[in-house]
Amino acid sequence: MANESTENKSAEEIAADALAAEIIEHAEEQVEVQLDAAAENISAEQEKINALELALATAKATVADQKDSVIRAKAEVDNVRRRAAQDVEKARKFALEKFAAEMLTTVDNLERALQSIDKDDERNTAIIEGIELTHQGLLTSLEKFSIKSIDPQDQPFNPELHQAMSMQEVEGVAPNTVIAVMQKGYELNGRLIRPAMVMVSKAKPSVDTTA
């Protein structure tokens, strides 16, 4: 039947069919070429995208590393600054402690002089006034450097600030009370640099009433 259909076609129809087939084939080839070209373009663009994404990821990693380095560097600088400040503070306090130790010896000597001099002798009046003025001026200077005396007379005994040299029973005085200050204590900026040497009252021994 096909042969008969072909035989029945005229030469013009056969030529037209052949031309149509050729046009279709050519179109298909063009489509394939365009598809291949498009695929190549897409592949090239994808490679560019991949390269850009890789570059972006690398840049982000670099920024993160640099940020971490900056943070660590800042922390180290802060640590160095804090240690330097602590060293300066320690040096200042140490210098003041040495200064206080030297001055306290002078204060003690002036106080002992005031205690030992005969105040009833009028000939000593000028000397006493001079010693008292020197003593008070020295204490004022020490206070400017936050050096303060600890004079716990008649106060409860505090082992953090006082050093008990002896204990004694005293009628009418509560136990554990400072009854005499042998040597004043001193503190620097609230920190003890010398305890007060004191005498402390003690309770009377209990009497055994069962005998």
TrEMBL record:
One of its GO terms (biological process) is protein folding. InterPro entries: GrpE, GrpE_CC, GrpE_head. Residues 28-120 form a coiled coil. The keyword DNA damage does not apply. It is found in: Cytoplasm. Pfam families: GrpE. Gene3D superfamilies: 3.90.20.20, Head domain of nucleotide exchange factor GrpE. One of its GO terms (cellular component) is cytosol. GO terms for molecular function: adenyl-nucleotide exchange factor activity; protein homodimerization activity; protein-folding chaperone binding; unfolded protein binding. Keywords: Chaperone, Coiled coil, Cytoplasm, Stress response. NCBIfam families: PRK14139.1, PRK14140.1, PRK14150.1. Participates actively in the response to hyperosmotic and heat shock by preventing the aggregation of stress-denatured proteins, in association with DnaK and GrpE. It is the nucleotide exchange factor for DnaK and may function as a thermosensor. Unfolded proteins bind initially to DnaJ; upon interaction with the DnaJ-bound protein, DnaK hydrolyzes its bound ATP, resulting in the formation of a stable complex. GrpE releases ADP from DnaK; ATP binding to DnaK triggers the release of the substrate protein, thus completing the reaction cycle. Homodimer. HAMAP family: GrpE (MF_01151). Belongs to the GrpE family. This is Protein GrpE. The lineage of its organism: Bacteria, Pseudomonadati, Pseudomonadota, Gammaproteobacteria, Alteromonadales.
